[in-house]
Every structure is written in structure tokens, then in C-alpha cells.
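Quick one: DinB family protein from Roseateles albus, C-alpha cells please.
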Amino acid sequence: MEISLLLKALEYKSWADRRTLDAVGTLDSVQGATSLAFARQQLNHMVRVEENFRARLLSKPGLHSSTNTEVVPDLADLDQRLTASNAWLASYAAELRPDQAHQKLSFTFVDGLRGSMTPEEILFHIVNHGTYHRGAIGHALDLARAKRPADTYTVFIHALEPQRRDT
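--- reply ---
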């Protein structure tokens, strides 16, 4: 994968995460309690996975021994952590040299199994992983009859470059 495309994908992820966080923030804590709890659980999982992979990109052990928690942080905490993760990932990718992008990193997953991935593969996984879980959150928003944000790459790229609509 070309580094510039990876940077654009991470920019897209940050944009889509922001739209999802804002939509989840509109859920009524009483009438939308089930959907809000589910969305928070999904966001918690997303950020814990990202924090573990960030540690792996830095050749450190993962920060978390599980990909979710019994007690889920509040939305404000999850928002702060996911926003910080997106900023870190963008900065990391911007400084990633092509020769570094393809070096295998070995690590242990939370299930105890060993694995290896390149930084490029890890970043791609994080983008893809977020897309999957935002889709699940979108379904929870639908069930709560809340506004589901359009968060596809096509919407992102045309919002970023509206002149593309005129070609």
C-alpha cells in the first residue's frame, strides 16, 4: 500500500470516528440506554485494540490483557482516547519511511497466540477494524431511531474535495 493512501485512510478513519462519536453523543441516556451501552462497548473495544497495536508499533508489550472491560468508560473518556489515538496514528504514519513500513514486527495477541505484522498491515487493520465496529454502532443508532451519520469513504472524499462532484 502506498504511504499516501494509508495517510488518507487514517484521515478518513478519524473523520468517520468523529461523526460516530458525535452521533452516539445524541443518544438519550434513558430511551436509548441499550444502544448507548452497546455503542460505548464497541468504542471501548476499538480504542483498546488501537492502544495495544500502538504499543506493538513501538515494539512494546500490549497495554491491555483483554479487548474489552467489564466496566466500560463513559463516552467522554472514550472520545478523548479515540481522538488521541487517531492523532497518534496519523503522526506515526506521516513519519513512517517506506523501508520501515514493510518490516515484520512480532508480538503476542491478547489470546496468548504469537503473530507478526508489518506496520503497514497494522495500520490497515486498524482502519478496517474501525469500519467494522462503526457499522455495528450504526445499527445500534438505527435501533434507537437516532440519526446515523453517513461515514463511507465516498462521502468523506467528496466532503474533503467537493469539486469532485462536478467532474
